[in-house]
Design brief:
Helices cover 38% and strands 29% of the residues. The protein has helices at 4-11, 15-42, 78-88, 125-131, and strands at 43-49, 54-59, 62-68, 71-72, 94-103, 106-113, 136-137.
Length: 143
């Protein structure tokens, strides 16, 4: 047993560095796990486009009526906005919701499509309607 002690002492200066590296690796794995779990928890699915501004969204066992935040749609443009949203958000399209409040019990949120499949960047649906000329941004909204 005496022979092992000198050999073991050679590695003692390395132990704090090894512990530090192991803790960094463990922390990185935990962060990656939490981020991947959080992304899956936030995703919801489009069940129905009700109008140019209202969506029916499903999130596991719950459903929400969601109003697109920060835009105004003229009444004569509602049909065109509804059609545009139906093209952009077909049934079961995965979306990310960023709640900004409520309006008479309806969730008001920014809505981004997640699963385009063509490599395009995420598009905020309200910003898309504005870019298509079907809605106008509300002045009190930012970002």
């Amino acid at each position: 047993m005496q022979r092992l002690q000198p050999h073991h002492r050679q590695f003692e200066p390395l132990l704090p560095q090894l512990r530090s590296e192991a803790l960094k690796l463990l922390l990185a794995c935990l962060v990656a796990l939490v981020l991947s779990w959080a992304g899956a928890a936030e995703a919801a699915e489009v069940l129905q486009v009700r109008s140019g501004k209202l969506l029916q969204i499903g999130d596991h066992n719950r459903t929400y009526t969601v109003e697109l935040a920060c835009i105004a749609i003229p009444s004569e443009g509602n049909a065109a906005a509804t059609e545009w949203l139906r093209q952009q958000l077909p049934r079961r399209a995965r979306v990310n919701l960023r709640p900004s409040g409520s309006n008479n019990g309806t969730l008001v949120a920014r809505v981004e499509r997640l699963d385009r499949g063509d490599g395009s960047s995420r598009t905020d649906m309200a910003a898309g309607l504005v870019a298509a000329g079907l809605a106008t941004p509300l002045p009190h909204c930012t970002g």
